[in-house]
Design a protein that fits this description.
single chain; 502 residues; alpha/beta; Rossmann fold; 6-stranded parallel beta sheet; two-stranded antiparallel ribbon; 12 strands; 45% helix; binds adenosine-5'-triphosphate; transmembrane helix
Length: 502
């Protein structure tokens, strides 16, 4: 991170993050947005943060004290109700907004109260990460569980990318990427830091969520994925010893008893703090007590307005969808009925970040009806959102890399489902798909007599002729394939048939 980066440097460094829309014109919030009393420390933060990868602010005055999340990616903050935990989180967010570019940092908010994080929605397309279709700040336990699982997948992708690049940390990886040593065509991309923030974490922690969080906090060191959890339920069984052991930074605001203090800090002390805003943490071999800054919520809103009013990315940074099988096999989307131009259309839509039927029609030179059918399939497959009148549909994949992973998964799901089908079903499926490929003809674009759009006009006879021809061709090919199957069966049995079908 370097605050002195010019716009050109940023394009040079992050241009490939989103080739469709660079944010070179992005401006950090100005100190004038803050009341006089807050300007000095935030200006100090801008200078002090330069030496850290992702600083966590612990004290702002008289000196700035931070922990680098880069080396301590998991943080637990405990405190009684109204001790100042949410304010602590606001302070982190506000200080990050003053220092980071949207390409460098994303956060995910899980919150239990509806009001606490409303302003965050304004910076969704700049600084937020989420699952496709999720709210900017998530409150529902099921969504939280899916988000953690998606982060586990993101974590594994990142570790794979590191292995390919021959590095062990996000810092080294991004360094290679910035210096053009890693080719985006091989799936490499600039990796932003992603911070999962869970306010009132006890609300979300149960069974599977706790075990997923344990896995995430065990694996995320140097991957650029971080976790900050705040809780008032210190003695809750949801903070298991295994989870607790993964927090290398443990902070306390006012706690109810010495017992609670020991559970968080291994020592007494937090029970004596003055709420709201006093914080205690381990500094060297002693405990240090500091007072947290207080930034009024209106100020946070102003800063978010400033960021949000600027040009952003088309979407929040979308996390990989975790359960493709669920979204594909239990939706209306029939994987075998995909239009042959389905994949090409998905790439087009994601590349242009525009869920538009006429885009598919124009670029692939299709009739409007067929483009419309493809768009329906894209919606059923969870690639675009639903029809919203004159607005283009929302595109749920931010870049081609994420899309390719999705396509790989559905193709893999396709073959695994195929292997589960009965042999006779398989034969029909494969025969069908082979026939589709053979009878597929590029459609001719018929120009309308007037109008700007290339809306194709279908001749009434077209479908009839095509239908008869293709039925004859299908019949001939089906007979041919069945004959082949019979011959292979006689020579090498069912195993040979199955191999041939594959
Ligand atoms: N450092 C601070 N200085 C002054 N007032 C503060 C400070 N931190 C928080 N407050 C005030 O204390 C109240 C409670 O703060 P906050 O909501 O951050 O607490 P919390 O621990 O998150 O509470 P809960 O457990 O209910 O979520 C708020 O009115 C807030 O404005």
């Amino acid at each position: 991170m370097n605050n002195n980066d010019s716009s050109e440097d940023l394009v040079e460094k992050y241009g490939t993050y989103d080739p469709q829309l660079d944010l070179s014109s992005y401006r950090h919030p100005t100190l004038e947005l803050l009341p006089e009393s807050q300007r000095l420390w935030l200006s100090n933060v801008k200078t002090s943060y330069r030496n850290f990868e992702l600083p966590l602010l612990l004290e702002n005055a008289p000196s700035i004290i931070v922990r680098d999340l880069y080396h301590h990616p998991n943080v637990l903050l405990a405190g009684t109700i109204a001790s100042g935990k949410t304010q602590f989180i606001y302070n982190q967010i506000i200080s990050w907004l003053y220092v980071f570019h949207p390409a460098e940092l994303k956060f995910i908010i899980c919150r239990s109260k509806p009001v606490d994080y409303n302003s965050i929605a304004k910076i969704e397309r700049h600084f937020l990460s989420k699952l496709p279709g999720a709210e900017p700040a998530i409150a529902e336990s099921g969504q939280v569980a899916k988000t953690i699982n998606a982060l586990l997948i993101e974590c594994d992708h990142r570790l794979d990318l590191f292995t390919t690049a021959g590095v062990k940390t996000i810092k080294d990886y991004n360094n290679l990427f910035i210096h053009r040593k890693l080719n985006p065509a091989d799936g490499h991309r600039f990796l932003s830091n992603i911070v999962l923030i869970m306010d009132d974490m006890q609300t979300f922690l149960h069974g599977d969520v706790t075990s997923s969080l344990i896995s995430l906090t065990q694996r995320n060191l140097y991957t650029g994925i971080y976790f900050i959890g705040a809780t008032s339920q210190i003695m809750s069984r949801s903070i298991t010893p295994q989870l607790r052991a993964n927090f290398s930074v443990r902070l306390a605001m006012r706690l109810m008893s010495q017992n609670e203090s020991r559970k968080i800090l291994d020592r007494v002390g937090a029970e004596k703090l003055n709420p709201p805003g006093e914080l205690i943490f381990e500094q060297g071999d002693r405990l240090l007590t500091v007072k947290q800054p207080f930034v009024d919520y209106d100020v946070i809103q102003n800063v978010c307005d400033f960021v949000g009013s600027q040009r952003g990315y088309p979407n929040a940074y979308l996390l990989p969808i975790t359960n493709v099988e669920e979204s594909i096999f239990f939706s209306d989307f029939d994987i075998y009925d995909r239009d042959p131009l389905f994949e090409e259309s998905t790439r087009l839509i994601v590349m242009h970040q525009q869920g538009s039927t006429s885009l598919i029609q124009r670029k692939l030179k299709l009739r409007y009806n067929r483009a419309g059918r493809i768009m329906d399939q894209l919606e059923a497959a969870g690639i675009v959102g639903s029809f919203e009148g004159s607005k283009a549909r929302e595109v749920f994949y931010a870049d081609e890399h994420a899309l390719e992973q999705y396509l790989e998964t559905i193709n893999a799901s396709n073959s695994s489902k195929l292997s589960n089908l009965s042999i006779s079903e398989s034969i029909l499926r494969v025969a069908g798909s082979k026939i589709d490929k053979i009878v597929e003809q590029p459609e001719k674009l018929v120009q309308p007599k007037s109008g700007k759009e290339n809306i194709a006009i279908k001749s009434p006879n077209d479908s009839c002729h095509n239908g008869n021809d293709s039925r004859k061709a299908q019949l001939a090919i089906a007979i041919f394939i069945l004959a082949m199957i019979l011959i292979i069966y006689l020579i090498s049995g069912w195993e040979g048939v199955v191999n041939w079908l594959k």
